[in-house]
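Review this fold:
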Amino acid sequence: MRTSKFRDADLKANRKMGRGFRFAPMRLFSGGLVSGVAASVISFASPAFAVGAPTDRAIGLQEAGSDIAEAQIFLHDTILFPIITAVTILVLALLLYVMLRFRRSAHPEPRNFSHNTLVEVIWTTVPVVILVFISLFSFPILFREGITPKTVGETVKVRGNQWSWTYIYPDASGDLANGFEFTSNLVPDEEIDAAKGQKRQLSVDYPLVVPAGENIRVLVTAADVIHSFGVPALGIKSDAVPGKTGETWFNARQPGTYFGVCYELCGIRHGYMPIEVRALARADYDRWRAAASGDVEAGLTILAAASAPVQAAPVQLAARK
């Protein structure tokens, strides 16, 4: 099931899609300028960077760690945000106009009419045109998100528990039933080691480990109540429903650490079941998998050796002109 030949047609299609969204001029708005500068900083940073951790003075959406996430950011910054801004300004202007133009002191006797055909046609057709325009950009992203590529580098089953995540890996033949698994728990505040790059409320004792630059199929389910598995920087979010197995996928562009959380209220400790995804180079991933398949704890030693201390990617604010 696993393959090192990940530069296949599926990955090329993903990167082709992402390439069109890479330099969006409207990212100057809604924090896009900062995100763009952050992207350039991350590109030249250490391979073991962190995405999804709080960053001082950062604004806008999290920096994309996959082509799907970059497409989502493009949709928000370049398509949705300008439309939302324009509609908000238009509605505000109309409200102010009506309040001033038709105030009681200016019109003691209100005009007597019930409708205006032209206005009604405009406020019906314009929203339809806007929605159709948005769909031209959103539907391709939705289709790309929902269709798992034919070639995958690894398949992982994720099971949500109250309040932790269990990750199940298949054996060499691809059989999940005979594979290995481990449960990922939040690192308590008193055990956080900043020297290791651990983040409060985000770091876990055993992260989800995947090969970087390859398509990863994720099967999502739950053992008790409904959870939601989501990693914004990778552009994924899938509900975990007991008795049902959902499917999503992602492709982490480069080695590093990506953080997420449970996005479904699932009980008293809902806020204490974070997700930490560690993407490794294929050679490091193979060494980790070989060790973890025999002894899960031994995999931690390999993981520590393969991962440099993780530091949140620095964000530089551009100077105002």
Q: What stands out?
A: The first strand starts at residue 49 and ends at 51. The chain has one domain: 1-106+115-316. The CA atoms of residues 31 and 59 lie 5 Å apart. Residues 1-47, 309-321 have pLDDT under 50 and may be disordered.
